[in-house]
Amino acid sequence: MATVDYPSGLPAPNRDGYAFQAVSPFRRTEMSTGRARQRRTFTSVPTVVTLSFVLSTPQAQVFEGWFAYQITDGADWFNVDLLTPTGNMQSYECRFTEMYAGPELFGVKHWKFTAPVELRERPLLSPNYAEFGQEFVLYSDVLDIALNSLWPAA
User: Could you tell me which residue, 17 or 128, shows the higher pLDDT?
Assistant: First the structure.
């Protein structure tokens, strides 16, 4: 079954409680000597983020219908654009890990939904940038200014 997209007419998740938590990719075993052994247990590391949405009444109706019918009450994977430490909004494949909380009346006529969502892959730099291009990433704001503002026009 093809992955469904988050409805384009609905707003992006709010910043309220927006934090990523990666599942640990290793196991630690304490030894009787006081030392410990660690080993990698898997390479595909899921990440959990709690998303919250503040929606108008019509948007809340669309959200609940999408959740119930298009992603099988939250059990199926879906694509949603998220801001991550990689620096830009990017589409990630996600699924709900439990039923959302809400709808909770927010303000006069808006509704708040909150739910933990699992990202299939941890948002990371490409291995080439992590290994060889750290300076490009660290000084990307300076490069952006130099290339777009200070560089002579051709």
Answer: 17
pLDDT digits over 65-92, tens only? Answer: 999 998 999 899 999 998 887 777 888 8
How many angstroms separate the first and last alpha carbons of the chain?
49
SS3 of the chain: CCCEECCCCCCCCCCCCCCEEECCCEEEEECCCCCEEEEECCCCCCEEEEEEEEEEHHHHHHHHHHHHHHCCCCCCCEEEEEECCCCCEEEEEEEECCCCEEEEEECCCEEEEEEEEEECCCCCCCHHHHHHCHHHHHCHHHHHHHHHHHCCCC
Please determine, for residue 113, whether its predicted confidence score (pLDDT) is greater than 90.
yes
